[in-house]
Amino acid sequence: MAAVNPVQTQWHTFQYDHQEFKIPVRYQNPTKIGQGAFGAVIRLTDTTTGRTVAIKKLIKPFRGEPVYALRAYRELIVLLQLKYPNAHIAQLLDVFTPDQSLQEFQTFYLVMKDAGLSLSDYIKTHQLTEAEIKKIIYSILRGLKLAHSAHIIHRDLKPSNIGIDPETLYITILDFGLARVASSEIQTGYVQTRWWRAPEVYANWERYDDKLDTWSIGCILGELIVREPIVPGKDYVDHLKKILKLIGTPDETTLREICTPEVAAFILSLTSEPGKDFNTLYGYKYAEGNLQPVSGVSPHGVDLLHKLLSFDHRQRPTAAEALAHPFFDGYHLPTGEPTANTIVDQHQDATYPVDTWKKII
């Protein structure tokens, strides 16, 4: 563990937003980035290098049920495996714990390159041009292609989990706390924040693949255009109904092929939805007397959005296929879109007790 490194002997402890941080003294001037159920993130100055970093404290990863330790392990292993420069994925710079022994080991910290603002905050204050939307979605897909090539599914893509440099629009995919290596086994049922959650999570519980993430990209693309979430369901039934109202109800054959019998029967019991006109919702909008669009995307962008938001995941493009869509002409360069070796994780589906996870981590 990092704590036994003889170079690291000085720590300082402080409270920030009701969370206690104990970190090396080289990191100073904390400001809040955000906090969730499993981690708290602050921005600090690394006085050794002079650069700004983000430090994530894992909140009680060894509490109660072993699933929390498993999530902490998965996040660490994914970040260690995806250290590729200029890949639009959070770059891990260091890992440390102030705990001095395995018995004391209660948490650890991830030091990452600062990713700027969250995309959710950026959307609130900026009306994006099509060129900016194109650059942002291309960058996210480029990072996703790298992760998927290693068989890593993010499982919680949303604007608040994406960083953006407001000056350059450089994008960084963040928070791999729910990520996992893809498996032929039954997957964890809890994935994604609801508004960006793919319909197959409901349609075929615990059976999904990396196209789970490309649905989320479609939700983000729509959100960049209209500057608000496009399917803000109040609960999982309301969310499913909103999805069907937006994209239309699939035919009975498709439903019976991709849904469990119970879900297929439920959807068929609802009023069939024709779906909304995507060009009207997301296509170019013009101010009176202005020949240049003031918002929206081209027909190519609308077409990509339609494909990403396919209810049938079999018809939805992969990240690599989406990158090759005509919407990204002038951006797409296969040789400049890195891929990774497949990660083989012997522990990811293990059911170890907490003490075993502590030793592995």
Automatic annotation (TrEMBL):
Keywords: ATP-binding, Kinase, Nucleotide-binding, Serine/threonine-protein kinase, Transferase. The keyword Transcription regulation does not apply. SMART domains: S_TKc. The keyword Kinase applies. ATP binds at residue 57. PROSITE patterns: PROTEIN_KINASE_ATP, PROTEIN_KINASE_DOM. Pfam families: Pkinase. One of its GO terms (molecular function) is ATP binding. Residues 27-328 form the Protein kinase domain. This is Protein kinase domain-containing protein.
